[in-house]
Each structure stands twice: as structure tokens, then as C-alpha cells.
Design brief:
With 252 residues, the protein is α/β, with parallel strands linked by helices. 42% of the residues lie in helices and 15% in strands. The termini are far apart.
Length: 252
């Protein structure tokens, strides 16, 4: 098989939860560019329209499905509407820089519901359909804070560590059934959910700890996305693909 054929997603359907956001929206563009019919899932119709226009202009196939991903009922309805799914990207996320002692239960519950519960439930719902149809690829969005402790994002870090663990567990459970489950781990990519914690001091610290001396650009997640989604990654499951400019390789 030629290299281009390995990454070809023509005829496959990809559901991108969080696809109206900056990072997952760009990943969705990459999937569509490889031939997949992409379904953007989110709550912001205006952002969806803008992303859909970009994908359509590039010749891709795309649709939008509004969904409150913390609701099992809405996720089940979503799965029913879109039918067979070959690729699932779980990228919905929310963050907060509240000092630990000051975190209130409402904030804690909201972050856990969006970052962890929605991933577990969508993996149940779409994973069951993939098992029934004979295979698929699930890409869960992790975080550097899910691998190593990072300051100031306590609940977010706890949920992402759980997502990393869940992905490995599911990969082991479904490995002989054709369903691959992996975690894509972005390093520091400025996006809506983290801009409020990127203070000038924190930016200096991050860049100083990143060997490439810069933030990542959303388009730099496309390669890893296509690897995990396509036949090029057919023997990859239960792993973490880190795209971080060397951040995790730095110690002192």
C-alpha cells in the first residue's frame, strides 16, 4: 500500500466532539482533508458555520450536530442521528485557574462532567456501535497536565489524568475487537480554554521549558490525528501521542 493510501479516510465518518473549538476544529479540517465525512459536535452554531465553510471551501464533507455532551440522552440521540461512525474524537474541555482551597463544588462538578463524564459516556455509546460494526478509532484529547503535575489547574488536571487512564483501559478491553483507543496529548497550544491561565509569567515559564521555544500551532496536531485515525496507525492502541515541542523531554 502506498503511503498516501495509508492515511486515506475516504468513505469514513468522523464525529468530532468539541469540533467547534480551535484545536479540534483544526483537527476536523485535517480529517476532512483526508477524505472523511466529518460531523462537528458542539454548542456554538456560529463557530460551527465558520468551520464548516472552511472545510467545504477545501472540498471536504462536513455537517454540524448541536449537543450538550454532559447529557447521556443527547449523546444517544446524536449517535442515532449520525449512524455508523468510524472515528470518534473526544475533545470537549473546560479549564479553571481557581486556587485549590477556593474551588467550589459547582465548578468542580462542571469540569468533571465536561472533561471526564462526557468522554466516558461517549465512549460507551459510540464504542458499542464500533464494536457492533467491527471496528473504529477513538481519539481522546489528553493534556500535559494528565501526564505530569502542572500548577493552578487542579480539577482539569485530575480529569485529564483520568482520561489517560480510561483510554489505556479501553484499548486493552477492545484490542481484539478492532476498536483502537488512544490519547492525543497537545503540549501548550493557546486556545479558548487556557488563555485565561496564560499570564505573562506563565508564558515565560512555559516557553523556557519548551525546547522549541514557542507555542504549538493548531495545524501541528493534524499529523498525529491522521495517524491515529487511519490505517497508518492500525497497530497503535493504548498509547499517548505527545505533540509538545519537547516539553515533556525537559527536566532542568
Amino acid at each position: 500500500m502506498k503511503p498516501a493510501e495509508l492515511f486515506n479516510l475516504t468513505g469514513r465518518r468522523a464525529v468530532v466532539i468539541g469540533g467547534t473549538g480551535e484545536l479540534c476544529g483544526t483537527m476536523a479540517e485535517g480529517l476532512a482533508g483526508a477524505g472523511a465525512h466529518v460531523i462537528l459536535v458542539g454548542r456554538d452554531a456560529a463557530k460551527a458555520e465558520k468551520r464548516m465553510a472552511a472545510i467545504t471551501a477545501a472540498g471536504g464533507k462536513v455537517g454540524f450536530e448541536p449537543c450538550e455532551v454532559t447529557s447521556r440522552g443527547e449523546l444517544e440521540s446524536l449517535a442515532h442521528r449520525v449512524g455508523k461512525v468510524d472515528i470518534l474524537v473526544n475533545g470537549a474541555g473546560v479549564n479553571s485557574a481557581t486556587p485549590f482551597i477556593e474551588i467550589e463544588e459547582e465548578e468542580m462538578d462542571r469540569i468533571i462532567a465536561i472533561n471526564l463524564k462526557s468522554v466516558m459516556v461517549s465512549c460507551q455509546i459510540f464504542g458499542a456501535r464500533m464494536l457492533a460494526s467491527g471496528g473504529g478509532s477513538i481519539i481522546n484529547l489528553g493534556s500535559m497536565s494528565g501526564l505530569i503535575p502542572l500548577s493552578r489547574v487542579f480539577t482539569y488536571s485530575a480529569t485529564k489524568a483520568a482520561v489517560h487512564n480510561l483510554s489505556k483501559n479501553l484499548a486493552r478491553e477492545w484490542a481484539t475487537h478492532g476498536v483502537r483507543v488512544n490519547t492525543l496529548v497537545p503540549g501548550f497550544f493557546p486556545a479558548e480554554q487556557n488563555r485565561k491561565v496564560l499570564t505573562p509569567e506563565r508564558i515565560v515559564s512555559i516557553i523556557g521549558h519548551t525546547p522549541m521555544k514557542r507555542f504549538g500551532e493548531a495545524r501541528e496536531l493534524i499529523g498525529a490525528t491522521l495517524l491515529l485515525a487511519s490505517d497508518a496507525g492500525s497497530f497503535i492502541t493504548g498509547t499517548e501521542i505527545v505533540v509538545d515541542g519537547g516539553f515533556a523531554a525537559m527536566s532542568i
